[in-house]
Amino acid sequence: MQVNFKQSLFKNLQTAIELEHSTIPPYLVAYFTINDSTNAFAVETIRSVFMEEMLHMSLACQILNAVNGKPFIDHAKFVPEYPAELNFKDRDFDVGLIKFSKESIETFMQIEKPEDVSLDVAGEDIPVLVDKINLGQSTIGEFYAVIKQQLIELTKEHGEDAVFNGDKKRQLDPAEYYGGGGGLIVVDSLSTALLAIDIIVEQGEGSDHSIWDGDAACFGQDKEVAHFFRFKEIYEGQLYQEGDSPKGKPTGPEVGVNWNAAQDMIDNPRACQFPESSTAREKADEFNQLYSQFLEQLHLTFNGEPGRMRRAVGMMYQMKYLAQSLLNIPIPDKEGKVAGPTFEYVPVEERKTYNWSVSKTTDSNA
To answer: How far apart are CA 296 and CA 347, in angstroms?
Structure first.
């Protein structure tokens, strides 16, 4: 049997989808754990980033569908077990589910680090790795550059029609998508695939070795700094401004950051840590049921049922309410510590019919 000439491309695009997804739970945990009515700048910044990571994941799915591949999202191997390791060419580091803190923001900066930008932060390591996402390159941007080159070379060798022969009905219409900055695009050619990659990379690392993302040029939106530099603004408590170098610190106005105004969630919670009869276990199981069904809706969305995206968006809001419930449950044997969302995969055969009437907050003991 002849091997599909796009097999390596399929693998890299699936890795891209998994990579983009793997950052979302840690970003969400940092967002969820910030105390209400505090850290307004950090709240809005982290929210803007995880919404754009959802966009990046969606764009990677659009590209894979365009080249006649199939995104795999609703699968146990798709979900990392946190803490997970991101394995770059010249550095490995752990990504965990930990509360909003300098440590979590340091990790986010590691994830989004552009080429030729050094990190001058030094926090404690997150606990030992469990899973790995192997990129083989020094930065996410370099990893996407490999995919970009594959697309160009395959198109040159086999022709655009042979490479971009995916069913156009599997493309999610931008009108069906609700997300963050930028916007979803239909991918049906080499030019649109390359544009999608540029959006992903420039939102994360900056455009043309600058601090700014590419949304102003691509979508006519207000100028804003890329993900790495947004996180560094939180870390430094200061904004970037025109003329600042990507290799330097921000020099603009100061912004207030209260590192103590966060729920003291245990690191990397697991449902099995909570007694089976406890409220914490009940809520953790319920959260994981919802999270897994959210992945199911995304899988169906990008595998021929684009109308499912609206339900997936609704599930994201429900996950926030359940997470808040968990963060109000103290852990008896850990003074001051609370439970938190665990983002664990529930196999299809173990899923229950989800009750959509979720209370927004629950104050209870574990």
So the answer is: 10
- In whole angstroms, what is the distance from residue 69 CA to residue 42 CA? 37
Q: Are the beta carbons of 55 and 104 closer than 8 angstroms?
A: no
Q: Are residues 186 and 297 in the same domain?
A: no
More reliable by pLDDT, 331 or 132: 331
Task: Report the C-alpha gap between 171 and 302 in whole angstroms.
Answer: 7
By C-alpha distance, which of 226, 279, 229, 273 is closest to 252? Answer: 229
Residues forming beta bridges with residue 87, ordered by sequence position: 92, 134
Q: Are 49 and 230 in contact (CB under 8 A)?
A: yes
- Round to the nearest angstrom and report the end-to-end CA distance of the chain: 56
pLDDT at 179 over 90: no
- Model pLDDT, residue 132: 55
Backbone CA torsion sign across 79, 308, 33, 324: negative
**237 residue type, one letter:** G
If asked whether residues 217 and 278 sit together in one domain, one would say: no
Task: With respect to residue 355, please indicate whether it lies within any of the assigned structural domains.
Answer: no
> What is the Cα–Cα distance from 73 to 89, expressed in whole angstroms?
25
Domain containing residue 34: 7-236
Range scoring the smallest mean pLDDT among 37-41, 293-297, 332-336: 332-336
- Residue 207 confidence (pLDDT): 54
Q: What share of the chain is helix, strand, coil (3-state, %, to 5)?
A: 50, 5, 45
Q: Look at residues 191, 176, 165 and name the one whose alpha carbon lies nearest to residue 69.
A: 165
Count of structural domains within the chain: 2
Same-domain check for residues 147 and 279:
no
Are 287 and 59 a contacting pair, CB within 8 Å? no
- What's residue 174's pLDDT? 87
Q: Reading across the β-sheet that carries 131-134, which strands appear in turn?
A: 92-95, 84-87, 131-134
List 34's β-bridge partners, or say none.
262
Distance, in Å, from the CA atom of 151 to the CA atom of 191, rounded to the nearest integer, reads 10
